[in-house]
Design brief:
The protein has 12 helices and 13 strands. By secondary structure, it is an alpha/beta fold. The chain folds into 2 domains: 136 residues, Aspartate Aminotransferase, domain 1 (Alpha-Beta Complex); 221 residues, Aspartate Aminotransferase, domain 2 (3-Layer(aba) Sandwich). The chain has a 7-stranded mixed beta sheet, with helices on both faces. Bound molecules: pyridoxal-5'-phosphate. Pyridoxal-5'-phosphate binds next to helix 5 and helix 6.
Length: 389
């Protein structure tokens, strides 16, 4: 039976999270299926940035205390912790995902002296591959690729893995892989960029050791917003990261000679906190107030399933490139098409924004905080028009 626009509108009428779209400022007529690359702007962000400028002007350097800038990194870490199954004092907001990966990867290798290998997936996000390569060059270690058959054995110091694959959306078995790594005495370092805020993540239940993630995708912190790093409590005293700037010092303002790492994940900071980005992120995270990740997940599954069903009906040229089981993929659905780039450029002119990953992947993200079922319907209709033109 053909799915109609009314069917989509009915799904929206029954959606318990429909009101959350009001928390965002999305241009009329645009269907934004790229929130898995850069989230949409939450309404509170512009006001928060204006207030920040006012605090700065009024209190000048004292605003580090009066406006709470000095404690933002830890406070935001605590807000993100609830979305990734961590304790508030296991997460810090700082730097970029790539930078945090570098610091934690070096720290992980230092925690496993004498081990010769870092394991990663060749399919991982390129920056993760490049950082792992750089760390191996720096420390004289081997880089092995899990998906090319490298074993998890007693030579492995750390396994680096994305929780959700950026191309296919496939969800990794975090608990299973962590258990295998631990059985060989290795640590795990998870990249949560494509999971936090979109699918339930439970670092604690999985026994994960270390993790990194960005805040500009499903967390809507804005372009270049600061990333976060997680260190399980049991490892926090052992983590020795290589960029020992004053930001990670236990007594930054004592201005002493030797480096003493701050307690907890705060030692992963390097220098001045990116306050403007953190102020925006703080306001952006308000969009998650009163919402459970489980409810967001249910809605994202419903949106993704509608897209898949409509694509099967109306976009016969697209080849599925994501797991068919909605519970085995994150909040995105990918398809392959030899003309993916051209099609996406053409639909963008009709207000449908999705993204292209070379050589021929179309990636459609379903950010459950602000997308409606009718958006999904309209997007597929416009893509079908472009493909049949
Ligand atoms: C899975 C994954 N890891 C790492 C990165 C890089 O993040 P950053 O730009 O914060 O270094 C991205 C960026 O899109 C990503 O998707």
């Amino acid at each position: 039976m053909t799915i109609t626009r009314d069917d989509a509108l009915q799904l929206d009428a029954a959606d318990p999270l429909a009101h959350l779209r009001e928390r965002f400022d999305i241009p009329d007529g645009v269907v934004y299926l790229d929130g898995n690359s850069l989230g949409a702007p939450p309404r509170g962000v512009a006001d928060a940035l204006a207030a920040f400028a006012g605090d700065w002007r009024r209190d000048l350097i004292h605003a580090w205390g009066t406006a709470g800038w000095g404690t933002l990194a830890a406070r935001l870490g605590g807000r993100i912790a609830r979305l990734i199954g961590a304790a508030a004092d296991e997460v810090i907001v700082t730097d970029t995902t790539s930078g945090n990966l570098f610091k934690l990867l070096v720290a992980a290798c230092r925690m496993r002296p004498g081990r010769s290998t870092v394991l990663i997936e060749a399919a991982n996000f390129p920056s993760d591959l490049y950082i792992a390569q750089g760390v191996c060059e720096l420390l004289g270690l081997e880089l092995g690729y899990l998906d090319e058959g490298a074993p998890i054995d007693e030579t492995v110091a750390v396994v680096v893995h994305s929780h959700v694959d950026f191309r296919t959306g496939a969800i990794a078995d975090m608990a299973g892989l962590t258990e295998r790594a631990h059985a060989a005495g290795a640590l795990t370092l998870w990249d949560l960029c494509h999971s936090a805020g979109a699918i339930p993540v439970d670092l604690t239940a999985a026994g994960a050791d270390l993790a990194v993630g960005c805040t500009y995708k499903y967390l809507n912190g804005g372009p270049g917003s600061p990333a976060y790093a997680y260190v399980a409590k049991r490892l926090q005293d052992q983590v020795r990261q290589p960029i020992t700037g004053w930001g990670g010092h236990a007594r930054r303002f004592a201005m002493t000679r030797g480096f003493e790492p701050a307690p907890g994940p705060a030692r992963l900071q390097v220098s001045q906190a990116p306050v403007i980005g953190m102020v925006a992120l703080d306001a952006a995270l308000d969009a998650f107030d009163g919402v459970t990740v489980e409810a967001l997940r249910d809605k994202a599954v419903s949106l993704g399933e509608l897209f898949v069903a409509l694509a099967a009906e109306r976009l016969p040229g697209l080849k599925p490139a994501s797991p068919g089981d909605p519970l085995a993929r994150g909040s995105q659905v990918s398809f392959a098409h030899p003309e993916a780039e051209r099609i996406l450029a053409a639909v963008a002119e009709h207000g449908v924004i999705a993204d292209f990953r070379p050589p021929e992947t179309m990636r459609f993200g379903f950010a459950p905080l602000y997308l409606r079922h009718v958006d999904v319907y309209d997007a597929v209709r416009r893509i079908a028009d472009v493909m049949s033109a």
